[in-house]
Design goal:
Blueprint lengths: L1 H10 L7 E7 L6 H12 L2 E4 H10 L6 H9 L6 H15 L3 E5 L5 H10 L4 E10 L2 H13 L9 H24 L3 E5 L4 H13 L3
Parallel strand pairs: 1-3, 1-4, 2-3, 4-5
This protein binds uridine-5'-diphosphate and magnesium ion.
């Protein structure tokens, strides 16, 4: 029985199909969500924002993690991977689809290790889309978004500073890791959404 399972997982022609995946990373305010919406419209991917999934879980009155998530988000800290991974996996399964943009994840070493362990075997990672943007430009965008009523508890100067610190210290090393694997596609995200999308489109047209 054990042999049969081993044999099937390694050699069976009926092996489970893998999910197609693109990770989308970049500093807060670099336009990850904006570009993901455009990719969904044009290429039929399902957009999963780790941040949005965590906010939904926080708002779910039945969740045992609500308060904890609120605390992490306000302080720009990264929620333990077991929670985020579970939410992502559930969302992928529930969608019934096979191609996903995972936006804002993996953000630190804990995320990377947890993801590889829990989901690495089930996915085919095409590349990591990296929106490169100065923190000054990102700050302007986020404070404008906050002032316009984004309703996010972390779109304020104090939380933003913490989010940037986390980005520089914890997320940049993850981008470097994928860079060393030749998987990063870096775009200048200080431009207008339409200009950026021209480059994005080219990258996605090349995926078979
Ligand atoms: N977050 C997290 N793990 C993730 C993604 C998000 O803990 O995988 C938390 C983290 O506190 C982050 C916040 O959710 O600062 C908002 O993330 P989101 O991607 O929505 O916003 P961004 O900072 O990229 O604009
Ligand atoms: Mg976002």
């Amino acid at each position: 029985m054990r042999f049969a399972r081993f044999f099937c997982s390694r050699f069976s022609p009926f092996k489970m199909a893998k999910y197609n995946l693109v990770f989308v990373l970049g500093p807060p305010g670099s336009g990850k969500g904006t570009q993901c919406s455009k990719i969904v419209e044009n290429f039929g991917y399902v957009h999963l924002s780790a941040g949005d999934l965590l906010r939904a879980e926080r708002n779910n009155p039945g969740s045992q993690y609500g308060e904890m998530i609120e605390d992490y988000i306000k302080n720009g800290l990264i929620v333990p991977v077991e929670i985020t991974c579970k939410l992502l996996e559930r969302a992928m399964k529930d969608s019934g689809k096979m191609s996903f943009l995972i936006d804002g994840f993996p953000r630190n070493e804990d995320n990377l290790q947890g993801w590889n362990k829990q989901c690495g075997e089930k996915v085919n990672l095409h590349f990591v889309l990296f929106f490169d943007c100065s923190l000054e430009t990102c700050t302007e965008r986020i404070l404008a978004r906050g002032a316009a009523g984004s309703g996010r508890v972390d779109d304020n100067k104090e939380s933003l500073k913490k989010r940037f610190d986390t980005y520089m210290n914890s997320t940049m090393p993850i981008i470097s890791h994928y860079e060393s694997l030749g998987l990063v596609r870096k775009l200048d995200a200080s431009r207008s959404p339409d200009e950026i999308f021209k480059d994005v489109k080219e990258l996605f047209s090349k995926i078979n």
